[in-house]
Amino acid sequence: VVRIQLGWLALTLRGLVVVGIAPATCAAAEALRAERRGELTRALPLMWEAYRRELIPAGIRMLPLMAVQTLALLMLWQAAAGLSSNPAIMAVLGTLGAITAGWASVSLAAIAVAPRVRDQDLLVTWRLALLMPGAVPLRSLALAVLLAAWTLLSTTVWPLGLLLGAGLAIDLAVGLLSTRISLLLDDLSAAPITETPTVPPS
């Protein structure tokens, strides 16, 4: 995980963070998936190839959700900091921010760790990604909680975050979502399509 984390950092910085973070995350997920299959020999060449391939497609698909995630986290921070004098408003902001941030995080994870979600047309990718937290609720809830706990720990113990931060977070997403999403999409593909009977004209 450490070498993948360092590769993720290098690729993210190469894209000046904003442009680089989405393809770097997809590249790290691809390397971690290969590692779980026992097919990973050299992480950096694989990540570099995936990064170049996903530079534009992943950015288009993930950056809008990242913006939503950032706004939700700002709402959560505002509620936690008590910037409003009205406790009811803070409670609503905190709840809405937490739910939106968790949902956006799982949707982003679905795009990053599942190539079959990411390779669809743009609107189909967004639809699948936004539906995934509801399609696999227990795994999504577990991932959201684990990511929140890991983010808190990584920001508190910054050397740990520097060495493992995003790499371990992406590994958690791969472990919880990658295979399950693939099986779910296989089931959807195999499901018979029922045709609506046509009524003959009178």
Walk me through what this model shows:
- This protein has 202 residues and is an all-alpha fold.
- The chain has eight helices and no strands.
Structural class: mainly alpha
Order of helices and strands: HHHHHHHH
> Mean pLDDT, nearest integer?
91
Q: What is the count of DSSP helices, taking H or I runs of 4+ residues?
A: 8
Instruction: Report how far apart the termini are.
Output: 68 Å
Rg for CA atoms: 19 Å
In this structure, how is the largest beta sheet organized? none
Coarse shape: globular
- The beta-strand count equals 0
The percentage helix is: over 70%
Uncertain ranges: none
Write the layout of secondary structure elements.
Layout: H1 2-14, H2 21-36, H3 43-81, H4 87-113, H5 115-118, H6 122-135, H7 137-156, H8 158-190
Helix pairs in contact: 1-2, 1-3, 1-8, 2-3, 2-8, 3-4, 4-6, 4-7, 4-8, 6-7, 7-8
Features:
mainly alpha, 202 residues, globular, 0% strand
